[in-house]
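Hi there,

I know you've been waiting on this one. I reran it after we fixed the sequence typo, so this is the corrected version. Both the input and the resulting structure follow.
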Amino acid sequence: MDRLFVALCAFVFGSASALADNSDTKPQGPATTPSGTPLIGDFDTTSTDQDRAARAGAKAKWDKMTPEEKTAAKRTMAQKRRAELTKPLMGDFPTRAGEPGYVGK
C-alpha cells in the first residue's frame, strides 16, 4: 500500500512539473523598476563617472575650507535637515478656529 501511495505522489508531482514547463516563453530584457530605472548593476557608467567627479570636486572644496567655514556649513546643513524633518507631510493644515479651512468640532 505504501508503494502505491509513493508511486501516486511521484506521478502527481511529475505531471505538475511537466505542465509547469515554461521553455517556450521569451527571454526578458534587463530588469527595471516600473518607472524604467535600471536595477542595481545595470547603471550607465557615464553617470557613475560624473558622480565620482562631483564627489572629488566637493571633497577638494571641503578640504580647502577653514575650520570656521566647515562649522558654519555643518550648522547650515543641520538646519536644512531639521527644517525638512519638521515640516508637515501633506501640507500646512489650519489648526485654529478662524483660520481659513479650519474644520473644528
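Quick highlight: The mean pLDDT is 75.

Best,
R. S.
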